[in-house]
Specification:
The structure is a single chain. With 310 residues, the protein is of the alpha/beta class. The chain folds into two domains: 3-91 and 278-295, Rossmann fold (3-Layer(aba) Sandwich), CATH 3.40.50; 94-270, NAD(P)-binding Rossmann-like Domain (Rossmann fold, 3-Layer(aba) Sandwich), CATH 3.40.50. Helices cover 32% and strands 17% of the residues. It is built from ten helices and twelve strands. The strands form two sheets. A seven-stranded parallel sheet has the order 8-7-6-9-10-11-12, sandwiched between helices. It has a five-stranded parallel sheet with strand order 2-1-3-4-5. Helix 1 links the parallel strand 1 (3-8) and strand 2 (29-32). The structure holds NADP nicotinamide-adenine-dinucleotide phosphate and glyoxylic acid. The site of NADP nicotinamide-adenine-dinucleotide phosphate has 29 residues, from helix 6 and strand 7.
C-alpha cells in the first residue's frame, strides 16, 4: 500500500491530521511522523512547519503537500528535496481574510471603536456618516487571498487598489504592478492590507520608506507574515502620528514575547496568527483530490514555484 507521511511541529496536530487524512484516503496508509524514527518509505508528505529531519529520513518522497497557503517555512528548510510542493489554494481562508479585514477596517472607518468608548460613558452620540472616498484601501498581493479581499472591500464601496508582480484586470479594483508602480500604489493608500508571500523580495517590505509613502492617518493591517515588517519602523510611525493604527496578526517572533512593545501599545490591535486558519474539511478535501490526480498521472493545482518562492 502506498504510504503518506504526516508531519507537523506538534505531535497532537500530527495525529489529528493523520487520522482525518486516513479517513479521506482509505486506499493509502497514512503514517504519523515521530522524531527519531527511521524512514517509512512514504511517497507523499503532508506537512505544516515540519522539522528538516523529516526529509532526511523520508528519502523516497515524490511530492509534498503543505497544510497552509504560505510555504516560506518549508522553503527555508535545509536539505529540502527538489520535488513538487503543493500549497493550499483558498481552501476557506479567503472568506476568513475578508471577514478579518472588514472587521478591523470598519472599527476605524465607521468609528465602531469610538462608539465602544462612548458606551462606557452612556453617551448617545451618533457620528456623521462615512465618506468612503476618505478610506482608500490598498491590498499588497493579489493572489488567492488578496484578490478575494480586494473584491469584498470594493463591494462595500471603498476605493480599492491592489499591487502584484504581474498586470491583470479586476473590476472595481485599480491595479498596480511591479516595483515601478509601487510608490504610486502607496501614495493613494490609507488602509494598507498585506497579503504578500514571504520571499527574498518581500522580506522587510513594511519599512520606514513604505510607511512614509502612505496617506496621512494610515492604518496597516498585516495578515501575511511577521517578517514583512521592520518592527522598529512600524513603532516609530505609530508614535510619530503617521499611522492611526496597526492591526497585526503575524509577528517576527511567534508567540510574541510578553515584553514586546506591541502588546500594550495603544494604537496596536493584535491577534495570534488566526486571521485565516486552515479549515480541516477544506484542506483534507483539496489535498486528497490532488493526491488522487497525481496517482492518475494528471496535473494538480497549487504547485509552488521554486524560482519565485511562492
Ligand atoms: P498567492 O496566491 O501566492 O498570491 C501572492 C500574491 O503576491 C500574488 O498576487 C503575487 O503577484 C504577489 N507577489 C508576490 N511577490 C510579489 C512581489 N515581489 N511584488 C509584488 N507582488 C508580489 O498567495 P495567497 O494564497 O493569496 O497567500 C498570501 C500569503 O498570506 C501567504 O503566503 C501567507 O504568508 C499568508 N497567509 C497568512 C495567514 C494568516 O492566518 N495570517 C493565513 C493564510 C495565508 P502575481 O499575482 O503577479 O504573481
Ligand atoms: C497560514 O499562515 C498559512 O500560510 O496558511
Amino acid at each position: 500500500m502506498t504510504r503518506i507521511i504526516v508531519a507537523t511541529a506538534q505531535p497532537e496536530s500530527t495525529r489529528r491530521w493523520r487520522d482525518v487524512m486516513q479517513a479521506a484516503l482509505p486506499e493509502f496508509e497514512l503514517v504519523e511522523w515521530q522524531p527519531g524514527q527511521t524512514g517509512s518509505g512514504a511517497k507523499y508528505a503532508v506537512v505544516w512547519g515540519p522539522p528538516a529531519e523529516v526529509f532526511q529520513t523520508e528519502t523516497g518522497l515524490e511530492a509534498i503537500f503543505n497544510l497552509g497557503a504560505g510555504v516560506d517555512a518549508i522553503l527555508g528548510l535545509p536539505g529540502l528535496p527538489d520535488i513538487p510542493i503543493y500549497r493550499l489554494e483558498d481552501a476557506g481562508m479567503a472568506a476568513q481574510m475578508a471577514e478579518y479585514v472588514i472587521h478591523y477596517l470598519s472599527r476605524y472607518s465607521r468609528g465602531f471603536d469610538e462608539y465602544a468608548r462612548r458606551q462606557l460613558h452612556s453617551a448617545w452620540s451618533p457620528k456623521q456618516g462615512i465618506v468612503y472616498s476618505r478610506w482608500p484601501v490598498g491590498v499588497m498581493g493579489l493572489g488567492q487571498l488578496g484578490t478575494y479581499v480586494a473584491r469584498a472591500v470594493a463591494n462595500l464601496g471603498y476605493p480599492v487598489a491592489g499591487w502584484a508582480r504581474s498586470p491583470r484586470e479586476e473590476e472595481g479594483v485599480e491595479i498596480f504592478h511591479g516595483d515601478a508602480q509601487f510608490k504610486a500604489f502607496l501614495g493613494r493608500t490609507r488602509v494598507l492590507v498585506n497579503l504578500l508571500p514571504l520571499t527574498d523580495q518581500t522580506r522587510g517590505i513594511i519599512n520606514r520608506e513604505l510607511l512614509q509613502s502612505l496617506l496621512p492617518d494610515a492604518v496597516v493591517i498585516n495578515i501575511a507574515r511577521g517578517a514583512h515588517v521592520v518592527d522598529e519602523d512600524l513603532l516609530a510611525a505609530l508614535d510619530s502620528g503617521k499611522l492611526m493604527a496597526a492591526v497585526l496578526d503575524v509577528f517576527n517572533q511567534e508567540p510574541l514575547p510578553a515584553d514586546h512593545p506591541y502588546w500594550l501599545h495603544p494604537k496596536v490591535k493584535m491577534t495570534p496568527h488566526v486571521a485565516a486558519v486552515t479549515l480541516e474539511a477544506d484542506a483534507v478535501d483539496q489535498i486528497s483530490r490532488r493526491i488522487r490526480l497525481l496517482e492518475e498521472g494528471k496535473p494538480a493545482s497549487g504547485l509552488v514555484r521554486r524560482d519565485t518562492g511562492y
